[in-house]
Amino acid sequence: MSHSQDSQTTDSSHQNSQGWQATSRSTSQHSGRTPFLWNPGQHLTVVAETGLGKSTLMEWLSRQRRYKILLRSKPDEVEWRQERTISRASQLKTAKYDSFELYPHGDKNARAKEFHEALEYAYETGGWTVIIDELFYVSRLSLPAKNRRVLRLESDVEDLFTQGRSKHITVMAGLQRPVAVTRFAISQSKHVLAGVMEARDAKELSLATSRQMEVVVQNLNDYEFAWFSRPHSIMIVKLNVESQELEVLE
Ligand SMILES: Nc1ncnc2c1ncn2[C@@H]1O[C@H](COP(=O)(O)OP(=O)(O)OP(=O)(O)O)[C@@H](O)[C@H]1O
Ligand SMILES: [Mg+2]
User: Fold this and answer.
1) Separation of 53 CA from ligand 2 center, angstroms?
2) How far is Cα 7 from Cα 82, in angstroms, rounded to an integer?
3) Spatial distance between the Cα atoms of 29 and 53, rounded to a whole number of angstroms
4) pLDDT, tens digit, for every residue of 1-60?
5) C-alpha angle with apex 199: 196 to 200, nearest 5 degrees?
6) Which of 18, 72, 160, 217 stands 20 to 30 A from 129 (CA)?
7) Which domain holds residue 40?
8) Assigned domain for 12 exists
9) For residue 115, what is the domain's CATH number?
10) How many domains does the chain have?
């Protein structure tokens, strides 16, 4: 199955639930090959320390998908090619576009509110690839709720990871370490791509993926990722930024 067919599967599931029309702006196709098929509904998590190319790789992978919502929480050099950059989640509902970058203005509370609304919207409407570039940061945001309770965005994220599949939602998340975020990020991901990491984190990652990953991820070079695909396949990949091909090294 080619990746364009793969993304069409996502598209039709979204169109069924939304009845949206295709727009001419949304035809950016992705011809890059990946060693494993990344099908709609299969969550994918990228784990690597800062500066090792997570966002670059996630942006490249996300080109396979048409209906996507990126939650962006910080500036970096990576140019996400979404059709529309918005600052409020309510714009998801009104704008007739297929892919969005939500980059809220304001402080942490404003970001929490917008991200919460976007995650809820994605959950309710289905069919999206939801890209959470910095999962650790987003999960720790919270909002005041009724009766002095606090609504933590981690629970929104967990809902998507655990129940999103039935709604044809794919979560793609980036994290710097395999700890201190919801366990579902790794345990519910069909695909886990990990960069080089220290022994303690490699051990932790292996407990949630496979034993082989422990050694593999300690021996990677910069920008190389061990792509673990459940149940037990591993390939070493590196994005060649010049050719824009994902090279399989082993
Ligand atoms: N495959 C690659 N080959 C060469 N350079 C790369 C590659 N991937 C990323 N880079 C470069 O490395 C730098 C960091 O990349 P990127 O922002 O994707 O990393 P990151 O892991 O998301 O970092 P952070 O945790 O700070 O967000 C950028 O300058 C980018 O151009
Ligand atoms: Mg990044």
Assistant:
1) 7
2) 15
3) 22
4) 333 333 434 443 444 343 333 333 333 444 578 999 999 999 999 999 999 999 999 999
5) 115
6) 217
7) 35-248
8) no
9) 3.40.50.300
10) 1
